[in-house]
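During the reporting period, our protein records have gained a structure token line. A sample record is set out beneath this paragraph:
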Amino acid sequence: MLRVTSFIPAVEAFDAPASTVVLPHADRHLRRKLLHLTDGEMVMLDLKEAVLFADGDRLVLDNGDQVEVKAADERLYAILPKDGLHLLELAWHLGNRHLPAQIETGRILIGRDPVIRTMLEGLGAEVAEVVEPFQPVRGAYHSHGGHGH
């Protein structure tokens, strides 16, 4: 079985990947794990420290091939504000609750939680159920795990 002992951040990955692994956000913080690739193969991830992988990052196999990490589709809420200032206010409320959030120019994505939805609608936001990849903003105390290459 091939092993992964290093990685390349997405911004530095230029070669075509040999395969792909699809993982939801909660399963992309890894150090050691058996990964099932989309082509049916398995590889053993074995890093010196835990890494929070982002969509597009590459795992480097011991034979030199690369496996692309893809963010899985997840059941999310798309939070649509009235305007830019409202988006900032909504982001503050979510951050105050330490919720992982993907913040974009015109919307915020979060995991589905009916209590939070009620709060957001009470604050004047439109909340839609969507299914798409989730890449929340990394917290201030999360690093990419250093460069493994």
Q: What stands out?
A: The two ends are 21 Å apart (CA to CA). The helical segments are 84-96, 114-122. The chain has a mean pLDDT of 93. The longest helix spans residues 84-96.
